[in-house]
Each structure stands twice: as C-alpha cells, then as structure tokens.
Amino acid sequence: MKRIAIIGGGISGLTAAYTIDEKRRSGTPVEYVLFESSPRLGGVLVTDHVDGCLVEAGPDSFLTEKPWAADLCGKIGLGDQLIGSNDSERKTYIVAKGKLVVMPDGLMFMVPTKIMPTVMSPLFSWRTKIRMAAEWFHPPRKASEDETVADMVKRHYGSEMVELLADPLLSGVYGGEASGLSVRAVLPRFADMESKHGSLGRAMLKGRKKMAAVATVPARPLFTSLKDGMQQMVDALVARLDGKALKTSSVVQSVIRQDNGWIVCAGYQSDQFDAVIIATPTHAAADLLQGADENLARDLGEIQYSSSVTVTLGYDEKVRRSLPPGFGFLVPRSEGHRMLAATFVHNKFPHRAPENRALVRCFLGGARDEQILQASEKEILQIVGSELRQIVSITAEPLFARVYKWKSAMAQYSVGHLERLQRIEALRQRLSGLALAGNGYNGIGVPDCVRSGTEAAGKILAEMGMWSSA
What is the pLDDT of residues 367-392, one digit of tens each? Predict the structure, then answer.
C-alpha cells in the first residue's frame, strides 16, 4: 500500500486528494492523508448567506473558457448546479476624474477591436486615441527577454492605457501592478500575438473573426459559478473524500526526505509516506523544503504574494434603483481611492440577491496597499462607505456588511517567473516522490488551481506506476 501526504486543504489540495481517492476507490493500493492548518477546508472558497443574499468571501466565479473547474463540478455531481453570469448586463465602468465612464464596446481586455466606440469614448485623450489607431501598423516583434505588462502596453498604446486600464484590470485579477507583472506569465497570448502579428488590435480582431466563423453554438457567459456559491464545490469534494484522511487544524512543521520516502512532522506526531504533495502558498512550501533542497526553497520563496480585503454590503431597493446597470467599476490608482474595484452582484448574478436588495462587493489591498490588513473592520467600512458615496452617491447605511481579509492570497508573477518555474521543476524532479500545487505556479484562478492539483496527483501516481496518460 502506497501512502501519499497532501499538505494544504485549499481547492488545489482537495483536487489532488480527489484524484487519488478516485484511484483508491477503483482498487488501486494507495491511501492519502491531507493536512490543513486551519479548522476548515477550502481555503478562500467561502460562501455566507445573509438576509436572503448569497455572499462570497473569496472568488465569486471562474472564467468559463478555462474548463478544469467546470469539468470537476461535472464529475462530483454539480453539473446541473453550474450557472453563468448575466452577460446581457455586462458593462464595466472606469472611474475617471471622479465619474463613471463606461468601457468602450469592442475593448477586449485592454485591446481596442472597434474603432468608432473607442474614438467616441470620453475615457481616453486624443493623444491615446491616435496611438490606438497607429497601433494597427505595428510590425511583428519577438521579444528577446521577458518584460512587464506595463512596458508592453506602453509600447503599443502609451502610459494612459496603463493607468486607466492595464493597472485596474490586473489589480482586480492578480492584486498586482502592470509595472510588476510578467507579460509572458500573465498575458502569454499577448506576447504570442505581438510576435506573430505585431498589432494586438489586428491579432485580436482576426482571432475573434476566426472563432465566429467556426462557432456553432451561442456564445457562453464570461463567468461561471454555482447556484449555492463557490463553497458548494468544496462541500461536494469533501463529501466524496475519506473523512478519516482529512486532518484539519493540523500544522505541518517539516517534511524530511529519506531514501525510501518522506517523513511529515505535524504537531507532536510524525508519519512516513511514500510521496508528498505540497499544495500551499510557495513561501510556506519553501519553509517546509528548506532541509530537503536549499536551492528549491530559495526559488519558491522568491515568488511574492499580495493580500486583499473583500467587503460585501447589502442595501435596500432604493439604492438598487439608484445604481447604474452593469457588473461594476474599476478604480485607477490615480483617482486617489483605496478601493480597487466594486461589483454590483445583483446585476452580475441576479439570483444572489432578492429584487428588493442591492448587493455591492468592494475590493481593497493589492501590492500597493498591504497595510489595509492592519485596519480594523470599522475603519475598512468607513473607507468603503466614504468612497462609495463619492463614486456612486450611496448615502444610505447598509442593511448588513461583511468584511473578509485574505493575507498573502494572490501570487505575483514577476518578470522572470517562467524561468523560475523551469528551475523549480528541474529541482523538484531530483526529489522523487515530491509534487507541488497551488496558485503560485501557472495560474491563480480556481480552474488553474484545479488543474494544478490534478496534475500534481497525476505526477505522483505516475511515478508509482499507478497513472496512465491514456
């Protein structure tokens, strides 16, 4: 009987456990123990129900185009629970000079694919609009080395595009800055388009036309979630695992490499395993692996993380009627606010709030504002209340409020991240019976973490001769 330790009970660790458990149930001689330091499993996937509203503490959905999370939901009996975002209401605003300005039609991420809506938009200066037009004539360029997203966007569209779109968009997704994130790691499609086509606008339009020509089904919603919230995925996974193998409130102090396997030390106990899957943030993985390989630990420790705070506020029907249509707004740093973005949840996922409620979800923190974690809940609510009053004129007190703090939750893929991953993988391969999973490697979203956990389990099972790529 082979034994595998899984360290970390977030969605990556749970997916790894599920993958191994499927083999166990089919008769493969393998067992596992999952160690989680906190009292609950699921990491940032937390759903609360307040005043008839569904409140997400962490991610509220995932990108539909990344299939791994939806596929997993199908396998664990949640296929009929998947829901899409209300894309008929999909409109996003940018706060510019204190006012909400709608993002122009045809803007794909930050790349304009329609000329007239961009030209007519008050969001950009004429200088930037001229840069956008000239961008269509960019020659192909294959970068010799990695660069930041800001550098690439400036080269194509100028610094105003970085300030108004690239920074706010990346703050919302990664909690990072365009000037600190790697193009190759964060936007590999853009790097590829530039090398093949030169102009990002022409490449994006060509790709969209090609997809439209072969499309045989209606366009899918941009975001997918679950009817009863993202925690529904965690609950369904946990229900399918061996309860005796799940060790919550169990802090692992160290993992020690031995010729015939690994010793995992947790609390006052140590146990021997044939293999270990570490599905923690990379800085925690670095601490655990310091004694096994200093070089691997150093590379893991160099991956930085940012923290975030989410605040959900419930308001009455009067506030709901006063808010604009659309999914919400992004806030450029130049506006001088601490809020990074806000989502009008009642528009994005209408069933998550009764018709007489407005549900507004606000985001703070990120790479430039780690100190927000030190603020009290009262101080955070004062900041959010003041800024919502300035931006969307909400003067009413909320009917309820929920504040969630997530320390070091979002990995920052800095310049050179892919090269660092190559070093990490080469060093990992020298330590038999070790696999790594989580959002610190090849994607921070829920689907990426599901894929990461599945692949980590697959590597270990393949090493044991229990996994076939077929």
Answer: 889 999 999 999 999 999 999 999 99
State the distance between the two ends of the chain, measured CA to CA, in whole angstroms. Answer: 23
Domain count, the chain: 3
Domain range for residue 170? 106-213
Q: Residue 112: is it exposed, middle or buried by C-beta count within 10 angstroms (0-12/13-18/19+)?
A: buried
Indicate the pairing of strand 275-278 with strand 269-273: unpaired
CATH label of the domain that carries residue 272: 3.50.50.60
Residue 457 has pLDDT above 50, yes or no: yes
Closest CA to 182 of 152, 160, 162, 159: 152
Q: Report yes or no on whether pTM surpasses 0.90.
A: yes
Structure tokens at 344: 């009008």
Six token digits for residue 198: 């030169």
- The CATH number of the domain holding residue 407 is 3.90.660.20
- Name the amino acid, one letter, at 457: A
CA distance 96 to 164: 8
Give the gyration radius of the chain's Cα atoms. 23
pLDDT digits (tens, 9 = 90+) for 314-325: 999 999 999 999
Task: Please name the residue that has the structure tokens 């021997």.
Answer: 272
388 part of a folded domain: yes
Exposed, middle or buried, 376 (CB in 10 Å: 0-12/13-18/19+)?
exposed
Query: Tokens 């749970």 appear where?
Result: 14
Taking residues 345-363, what's their average pLDDT?
96
